[in-house]
Structure formats: structure tokens, C-alpha cells
Request: fold
Amino acid sequence: VQLQAFGGGLVQVGGSLRLSCAASGGTLSSYGWFRQAIGKEREFVAASRWSGGSTRYADSVKGRFTLSRDRAKNTIYLQMNNLKPEDTAVYYCAADSHTWNTGSLSRSDLYAYWGQGTLVTVSS
Reply:
């Protein structure tokens, strides 16, 4: 499976961006987004299962970010609203062919496929 992420950029505090991640070459069962800021470890943002069901969000993005997917386009999205300076990071989409339970979706080590990352910079 190949993942290609795009949609990052420079945005002001309070602004919005939508990240996209196009998948090809296989079936996705679990998918999500992680991010890594300079000098920090990669952290979980949001994840869900391709078949549907509950979506997990990091506490820091709840109510501001929305994860979704388009079955026909085999693409996943991360709508980010009310962006804050602390959201500045490289965002990575991730996917796996296994359907992980809700409690495991936030574990980056369970995802076999990763996109190349797209930079989001929130300026104040």
C-alpha cells in the first residue's frame, strides 16, 4: 500500500486546513493521522476503521479536528479547524490492513503503511 499525503501549508491562528491522503495498491482496514513537531516524538492525532465505527481523537484536537474517508476515492482526510500554534508539525497519514480495536488505534507501531508527511505551520 502506498500513501501520499498533501494539503499542508502555512495558516494563521484560528484558521483551517484539510489534509488528504490518497491510498493505492491495497486494502485499508485501520487508518489515521499522527504528527511530529520539531524536537518531539511522533504523537497520535486521530484514527478509525475503514469499515466504520467510532473514531479516536487525541484530547488536544477533540472538537477541532475531524477524520473522514472517501471509499470511492480511497482517500482519507483530516479537517483541521481553529488551528493553534501548538498544532505546528509534520503530519503523517498511516494505515494498516488489520482492523485494530478502538483501544489500539492510537498505537503508531501497529500501522504498516505511512505517507511521506506534510508540514503544517500555524503562525501567530
User: Anything to note?
Assistant: The chain is about 0% helix and 50% strand. The first strand starts at residue 2 and ends at 6. The two ends are 37 Å apart (CA to CA).
